C-alpha cells in the first residue's frame, strides 16, 4: 500500500520519517479557527490529499499541518482519521493515507517508540477508542477494496495492543459474525483481518474457543466449494498466520486431517496465487508440525514434485522450499541426537528425506538445468536452479553418504557436455554434496575430480561454469582439507598448480575472481593449525601481491570482489606462520599506506564517501587481523610496535572523518592494538578518549557500542591503574547506557563485565562508583534470578546477563582485595550470596555462568574473609552448589570451585 | 499479507569475515579477562602468605576463637609464612603476577637499607661496599618471554624484551615457565641502564636463602653470560650492568668512595656478606651519604645553589616519635603525650 507521492511511509517497512523533527510552522495554523467537526469534514481530506501532492512544498505544508493537528488534539486527530477512512464519500487516496497514518500511530519498528505508542493508545479516552474501533469495523464492509484492506491492518494493530490487556473482548465475536454475511467482499475483508490479527497477537491471549472458531472460519473459506477466489485467497493467507494458533487442533487427528486435506486441495486450485499461498502453508506446517507429518508425506511428495516439474516458478520455488525446510528440521534433530538416538529427545526423526531420497534427488537434479543466463551477476536472483541446488546441499547434509551414488551418474553424464548448462549443473551438483558425506566417501572422487576442476577453471569458455567451478573448489577446501582430515587432498605435488590456477582466476571477470578468492580463503584456513610450518609459505608473497592487485582492480566494486580479496588476505595472515612474519610486517606498511590514501581524498560526493568508508572498514579490519597476529608473539610484537604511533594516528583520523559515529572496524582494531601495546597505550589515551566516549554513546548502531564496551576491557587490562583519569567519563557513559531503554539489550551484559574490568584495573579507586554500580547490578540480578516461563532465547539472554553481572562482582571483589576499604563491600554480600543461591535453585544456568558464579563465591570469601564467614556458611551456594561444582566434569568449573573452597576455608577458619 | 521471503544464501560462506573478526575479538577479550581474574585469584593466597611476618591479629570482636587458641595458631601461621617466603613456588608465581596483585606484591618485596649511624663490628671482614647508582630502585622480572620492571610502589616502569633468561621471545631463549629471573636494580636514566645491585632469583632458582656473598658471586658470573650487559638491540631494549663491589678494607672503601664509575653516584651501600635477601628495612644493609658521594645529600634550589636554610619535613609517628621523610627515615626525637594532646 502507499500512494506514489508521500513521504509518510509504512512504519513497518521504513524508518520513522514521520517523526523526524520538522521546524515549527510559522504562519497561523490552518485549522485553528475551525470547529472540530468542520475540520473533519472539509480540511482533513484536503490535507491528506495534499500530503500526496507532486509538489514537495505543498506536501511539506500538509505534513506540518497534520503534525500540528496531532500535537494539539490527539483524540480529535485520530477520530477524524478513522472517520475519513470509514467515509464512503471520501476519495480512496485520502482514505488509504488516513488508515496508514492511524496504523503508524499504533506501532513502530523501534522498540522504544513502539512502547510509547502502545502506552499512548491505552491512555486514550475509552469513548474515543470505541468510536475509532467502530469506524474501523464499519470500514470492513466498504465496497472499496483498498479501504477494507487498510482497515484490516489497523484493526489488527489495535488488537495487538488491546487483547493482551483483556480489552476489546467482543472483537473476535463480531468479526466471526461477519463471516456469515452474504456479500463476499465483507467475508474476504474479515478473513484478511483475522490473518493480520493472528500475525499481530501471540496465541496465549486468544482463548481456545475463539481459536477454534477462527480456524473453522478460515478453513471453510479455503474450501474448494468456496466460489469466490478472493475469499479463498484471503482465507489461505490467513491460515498461514493462524497455524501457530493451531497447536491443539493439530493434536486432534480429525481436525488435523481436515486442515491438511483443505491445504492440499488448495495447492491444486486453478488460481496461481492460491496455489502459492497453499504451498506457503505447507512449508510452515513442515517446520511447525514436523512430528505430525508422517501420514501425509507421500501425498505431499506427489504434490510438490508435480509443482516443481510443471507449475509456475513462484509455486515451484515454494514446493522446493518445503523439502529444504524438512531438511532443516531433520538436520537440527540429528544434531541434537549427536549421532546417537536418545530416548528423551523432544522430537524423533522420521527420516522423511532418507525415505524420499530416490525420488527427491532426481527431481532436484532436474532443476539444476534451469539456470538463468545472468544469475551470477544479479545479487537478488533466486530461481529454480538455485533453489534446487541449495536443497540438494541440505539433503546431502541430512543423509550423508547415501546421496553420493545418486548424484554421481548425473555429474559423469553432464560434466563434459557441449552445452554450458549441463556442465554447470553437473559442477553445481558436485559442489552441493561436498558437505555431509564422509571424507572417506568423497576423497577418492575429489582426487579424480580436482585436476578436471582446475582445468575447467582455466579453460572453460563459460564464465558460469568457471564461477561454479571456483565455488566448488572452495567447498572442497572447506570440507576436505585441513588438519583434521586424514588423507590430504592437497599434496606437495599439486599445491603449486592449485595456487597458480587460483591466482590466475583472480584476474577473471569479477564474479569468478570473487569465487577464486573464496577458494583461496578456505585453502589458507586448512593450514591454520599446522604449527610452525605451512605449505603456503613459499607462495605467501605471491598470494599477498595477487590479492592486493585484486583490490586495485577497477571493477573490484562488482560482485563484492574487493571485500572478498581483503577477507582472503585476512585469512592468509591469520593462518601464516613465523616463517612469514617478516612479510606480514611489510604488509603493515602497505595497508597503512592504503589507509592513508583514503584519508587524503578530498571533496568526495556522498556516494564516493560511502565507498571510502567501506574501504576504510576493510583496511581497518585487515590491520586488526595483522595486529592480533603479530601481537600474539613477543618477537613480532616488538618489531610491529615501531609502527604503533603511525597506526594509532591513522585510526584516530579514520574516526575523525566521520562526524557523528566511530568506525566499528577501527574500534576493533584499537582493542587488539591496546592489548598488544600494554601500559604504553597510555600515551594515546588523550587523543583516543573522545572517540571511545562517542562509541559508548552510539545507541543506534549497537554493534559499535558493543565493540567499544569490549575495547574498554582491553584498555583496562593494558593500562591497569593508568586508566584512572578516564574512569569518571567511561563509568558515566556506561551507567547511561545501562539506564537507556533505547540501547539494544545485547550490549548490557558486556557493560556489566566491563565494570569488573575497570574495578580490577583501578582497585579500591572503584570506591566512588560503588554507589551507582551496585544498585544497578542488584536490580539486574533480581531481574535475571528467575526465568520461569521464558523461552530458550530468553533463557540464553538471561544467562548472558547473569554472567556479566557475576563478572562485575568478581572484578570488584578482586579489585578491593587487601585494601582497607574492603569493608565497603560488606553490605552488599548478603544480596550477592542470595543471588547465587537463587540462580542455583533455578537450575537453568549454563556452564559459563556456573563457573563465574562459583568464582564469585570464592572472590567474596577471599576479599571479605572472616567478615563474611558466617554469611557464607549460611548460604546454600557454599554447600550444595559448591559440591556440585567440585564434582563437575568441566575442568574450568572444577578449577573455580577448588579455588572457592580454598578461599572459603580460609575465611571461616580465621 | 504478502508472500513470504524464501531466498537462501547462495554460493556464500555461512559466516562473514567481519562477523568472524568480531567473534575472534570477543574470544580474545574473554580469554584475557579470564587470565586477569585467574591471576588475581592465584595471587590471593600468595600475597597473604608472602607478606613478611608483620602479622596483625584480626580485631577481637571478629574473632571466632578464644584467646588461648589464638596464640599458638598465630605462631604456627607465622612460621608457615616464613617458610612460604622462601618457597620457590610462591616466588615463581610472583614472577608471573600481573596488575594490582603484582603491584601489591612487589611493593613489599624490596630489601631496604637503614642509615649508617655507626660503624658495624667486623666491617672490614664481613661487609661489602659499593657506590650506589642514582636512579629508580626497582625489581626487574623476566618470565614468559617478557621483562617487566616495577618501582618501589609496585607500579610498572617498563615492559620490554631483554636478554635475561625468558626475557624475550627469541628462538634461542628457552620457553620454559621454570626459567625466570627477579633482579634488584636501579634504573639510571642518563645512560638508560639497569644497574643490578642484587639478585633474588636467577633462571628459575631462588636466591632468597643464599648469602649476599653467594648472590653477588652468582650475579657477577651469570649476568654477563646471558648477553644482558650487551648494547641494546631489538630483542634487548635496555642494557644491564653490574656495579663494582669492594671489600670494606681501606683500599675498597677508598675505591668505592672516590673511584670513577660510569654512573651518577648516590651514596655508598654497605652489605653484610652473611645476610639473606629480606624484604623491608634491615640493619644488614646500610647507606652512607655525604656531599662527596651523593648529589642528594643537601637541598639545592633550581640553580643548583645551596639555600641559607635547609628544610626538613618531620613525620609524627603513631608512637610519638618524630622522623624525617628521608629514605630510610631518621628518627629525630620523641614527643611526650601531653604535648601531642596540646597540638
Automatic annotation (TrEMBL), chain A:
InterPro entries per record = ARM-like (IPR011989), ARM-type_fold (IPR016024), IMB1_TNPO1-like_TPR (IPR058584), Importin-beta_N (IPR001494), Importin_beta (IPR040122)
Its Gene Ontology cellular component terms are: cytoplasm
Primary location class: cytoplasm
Q: Which UniProt keywords apply?
A: Cytoplasm, Protein transport, Repeat, Transport
Q: State a single Pfam family of this protein.
A: HEAT_EZ
Q: Residue ranges of the Importin N-terminal domain? A: 62-142
Q: Where in the cell is it found?
A: Cytoplasm
GO MF annotation list: small GTPase binding
A GO biological process of this protein is:
protein import into nucleus
Recorded family membership: Belongs to the importin beta family. Importin beta-1 subfamily.
Q: In its UniProt entry, what is this protein called? A: Importin subunit beta-1
**What is the protein's species of origin?**
Olea europaea subsp. europaea
TrEMBL record, chain B:
Query: What's the chief localization of this chain?
Result: cytoplasm
- Compartment(s) of residence: Cytoplasm; Nucleus
The yes or no answer to whether the keyword Nucleus is present is: yes
Q: Which Gene3D superfamilies match?
A: DNA ligase/mRNA capping enzyme
List UniProt keywords, sorted A-Z: Cytoplasm, Nucleus, RNA-binding, Transport
Chain spans, region Disordered: 1-38
Q: Does the keyword Ligase apply?
A: no
Q: Which family does it belong to?
A: Belongs to the snurportin family.
Q: Under what name is this protein listed?
A: Snurportin-1
